Amino acid sequence: MKELKDSEINPLASLDNWEDDLLSRYPDPESIATTRSTEEYRQYDDPARDTVREFYKLNHTYQTYDFVQEKRKDFLAFNREEKTIWEAFDFLNQLVDDSDPDTDLDQFQHLLQTSEAIRSDGHPDWMVLTGLMHDMGKVLCLFGEPQWAVVGDTFPVGCAFSNKIVYPEFFALNPDSSNPEYNTQLGIYQEGCGLRNVTMSWGHDEYVYQMMKDYLPEPALYMLRYHSFYSWHREGEYGYLLDDHDREMLKWVKLFNPYDLYSKSPVAPNWENIKGYYQELIAKYLPAKLKF
Fold it and tell me: How far apart are CA 61 and CA 66, in angstroms?
């Protein structure tokens, strides 16, 4: 791949511009957004968000099957750093976003809001932990990865791109679109092969899934791995790749998604009141240190 310019590495003003776009595309009921209406989220002067369009142009151009394989080989070796969970959250907090109009809170507080919303609705503790960890993969930005290889809607590579993926016209720029091995409906896959046998575009979802796969139950792993796979869990695409297990797990991904999108609030959770709970929860499921 050619050397990228800074505008191609960071086309978004912030990672939250991508979430802004999601909230516009997928408005949801008010049940989780308790401190304001969903219409009040993400109010920017320019609702067209040209940077999001440029972001997806780059994402759809460069997320090829070969690119994903290179990133998997590189990052899934987990040989960069080793941190305690709390050091990992401090590391993630380096992604403080000064441009977000919704909140001044750091990344850890955003994750706490997601996990606390899940906990308040009485879901299992492993799902609470999933909410807490689901964006940990965004540390990829801190390892120098371009934004379009960290966030964005995810999708299968190695087969034809669905026209229900956001900005599908940009896939015409992707070399895989003209590769007969990859540009048919099934591409390199077999019908009904199951998503576990499908390679997804590279980003924070796959990275955190691989980080957590030995520690959390199967529904949690589907939440982590596919929470940005909107063309599947919101648009109903790629049914020809699914198996019965995927169809069973879909309900968990759908359950998790609103907590991911709509739990952000300007009010920070009271950490002193909940710290003990989260210390015990992390100790129950996760090792003392995580590898990055």
Answer: 12
